[in-house]
Amino acid sequence: MKPSRTSPLDTARQWVQSHPWQTALGIFALFALWFAFTAFDVYSQNQTERDAIAARDRVSALIGPKVLALQAQMQEAQKKIEPVSASMMDETVKLAFRESIKDSESVEVYGTNLEAAYADIPAFGAGKLSVIEASINGDGVAMRVIRIGGGQKLALAQAVGEEDRRRLVFVVVPLDALNRVLDTPLPSAAYLAVRQGQADFLIRGNAAVASMAEMNATPIAQTPWRVVASAPLAESGMFEAGGFGEAGLALAFLLAALACWIIPKRMKANAVPVEEEEGEMGPALTLEQMKAQGILTGNATESAPVFNIKETI
């Protein structure tokens, strides 16, 4: 009769049962490796978006001072002509703004009555009219990017003087004043732009993902502009943490595997040997062992007790 062979599955089962700590260590280590790989993959996928957001923040920090500088030049020109008198000529106002704004291409002055502009908006210019209206309705300097003569220009407008002597100053500056603000490190797959309304007037990067850029928009103070950025969609990972959730689980499983390696060693080190528990005299001996070692002689037999009882009457 042939002896029965143990199947590999039975062998593996027996090994697992006899080595529970090593089995748990292996399982936890495999989970740790898997989650570590997944964390790296998800983190790498989201790296492009993180770089695009960082570029957006740098552009926002660069364009803010340029906007403030232009506004300061407009306010400096306003101080030169105030108080505005009824007899002040428009040429005087224009000269003050030309001197203060060195890069200005043109300076125009209008009264508060814009009926002629409203009567023929295409001829006057819808973009120009919107900037002038913004200067009337708001405080400070209105700023827009508008189309003039087939190209984009930076338009500034400001209301100067009191109500009865108010003048509306319209200044055109080349868009070059904002040049190089997008000259910042940017991944080739990302998109970066300065947006006004729904139109981007400063553009760089992958236009294929421009439609998603509004989700990462950040406004520029005292302007109608936003700096927008986007990147190809990537897996957000567990807890939408961009790979950090998987990294946390990988660390947890790694610690569990480490515990399965340390605990058995500690248990073995803390175990008391059997010989120490039995004391210095060694293990207890049976009667036969005691006779064999000469502890008891062969004549030493166990006898029943003898009682000397006398009956008395």
Short description:
This protein is an alpha+beta fold and 313 residues long. It contains 9 helices and 8 strands. A hairpin with a 2-residue loop joins β5 (191-196) and β6 (199-205).
Q: Label the overall shape.
A: rod-shaped
The largest pleated sheet is described as: 4 strands, antiparallel
Q: Which sequence of SSEs, written as H and E, runs from N to C?
A: HHHEHHHEEEEEEEHHH
Low-confidence stretches: none
Assembly status: single chain
Strand content: 15-25%
The chain-level structural class is alpha+beta
Q: Let me know the number of strands.
A: 8
Number of helices: 9
Overall average pLDDT: 85
Q: In what order do the strands lie side by side in the largest sheet?
A: 1-4-3-2
Notes on the protein architecture:
By secondary structure, this protein is of the alpha+beta class. Helices cover 45% and strands 16% of the residues. A four-stranded antiparallel β-sheet has the order 1-4-3-2. Strand 5 and strand 6 (199-205) form a beta hairpin.
What layout of secondary structure does this protein have?
Elements lengths: L7 H11 L1 H62 L8 H11 L5 E5 L4 H5 L1 H4 L1 H12 L4 E7 L2 E10 L6 E8 L16 E6 L2 E7 L12 E2 L5 E6 L13 H27 L3 H4 L9 H6 L21
Antiparallel strand pairs: 1-4, 2-3, 3-4, 5-6, 5-8, 7-8
Helix pairs in contact: 2-3, 2-7
